[in-house]
Amino acid sequence: MLRGLAAGAATLRLEPPPYCRRCGYALEGVADEVECPECGTPVALSRRSNLLEDADPLWLRSVGRGWSVLHASAVLGTRAFYAYAIICLAVTTLGWMLGHRILTIQTSFLAGGILGVSIVVASIGAVIASAPDPRLSPRESSWSARRVMRWSLAAAWTFSTLAVMSFVAPIGPIGRSFAFALIWLSIASFAVLSLSLLRWTAGLADRVPAPKLAQQALRCARIGRWVVAIMLLSLLLLSMAPRGGVGGVRTGSLFFLFSAPFAISVVIGIAAIARTLNRSGKAIVQVLRDVVGEASTRDSGNSAG
Q: What is the pLDDT of residues 199-237, one digit of tens each?
């Protein structure tokens, strides 16, 4: 259920979080007229709602910077992904027909390199943007979308790095099998990362409050669960698909039949997630800029008074 609706927003305002918005210090029993014993922030500022307009401007700036990076890399990565798909479908086929294998490999590596760079930049942006809110972190669930996103991001990069190392320098006869298992784990981690990112996006939109934006992110997360399930099932079928051997045409047709659902689910999943992140990114970045400006002006006025 969304808490960003009017009633939810009113409830949040009636129940301010009991922690300092700058350092997370517990404020039970501390009067509104004094300052936080830990960091000196006026307690009255922390008694407000947990909507973004009442959050710490320093934390909001960090979230805004991270979201700007995340949004830009998501747009670049999506375009690079589709460019890579088109190159693999068209240029590669033409290159093999004409015998220009070097051109084909160079072009594919160029698009793949851009996609890889965008993934790295997006990961950095996600880490910056998912900094914990000091007022909410003391009571934040261990399985919150923000924490799951960070853990799945770390797991995805760990498994991916180990998989590459296993392919480059396989250890014994089980090296390749171990590498493929790591690839499965990295794909699953990236899938969890995508879904938790969408739910975390909905949580931020809920605190604007922007109910339509939150509903869109949650809707995409629900669709994403089915896409991830289809993708993992397709990967399982793809791993069991016959390769080579006798009857090359029939074997190739079976391999294509198994790989088609995976390719379709990947394209649909990336398109849905990218579309949501693109729209959410623009809206959240703009809202954060407005909120930071208003919060800084209001806080400076309160300090002067």
A: 887 787 777 777 777 777 777 777 767 777 776 676 666
SS3 147: helix
On whether the CB atoms of residues 288 and 63 are closer than 8 A, the answer is yes
Instruction: Kindly list the distances between the CA atom of residue 19 and the CA atoms of 39, 221, 302, in Å, as whole numbers in the listed order.
Output: 12, 30, 19
Which residues sit opposite 238 in a β-bridge? none
Cα–Cα distance between 216 and 223 in angstroms, integer? Answer: 11
Closest Cα to residue 66, out of 284, 300, 295, 302?
Answer: 284
Entry pTM: 0.68
Strand boundaries in the chain, DSSP class E: none
State the Cα–Cα distance between residues 124 and 2, nearest whole angstrom.
28
Rounded to an integer, what distance in angstroms lies between the CA atom of residue 234 and that of residue 248? 21
Q: DSSP assignment, residue 121?
A: H
Spatial contact of 221 and 198, defined as CB atoms under 8 Å apart = yes
Residues 203, 276 contacting (CB under 8 angstroms):
no
Predicted confidence at residue 2, as pLDDT, reads 31
CA 278 to chain centre: 12
Q: What are phi and psi of 26, to 5 degrees?
A: -70, 125
In this structure, what DSSP letter does residue 7 have?
Answer: H
CA angle, residues 141, 39, 28, in degrees to nearest 5:
55
Tens of pLDDT, residue by residue over 11-67, are: 333 345 577 777 777 777 788 778 888 888 788 777 766 777 777 888 888 888 888
Apex 186 CA angle, 182 and 191, nearest 5: 150
Helices 248-304 and 211-240 pack at an angle, to 10 degrees, of 150
**Residue 30 and residue 102: Cα distance in Å, rounded?**
70
The mean per-residue pLDDT over the stretch 102-109 comes to: 55
Confidence tier at 7 by pLDDT (50, 70, 90) = very low
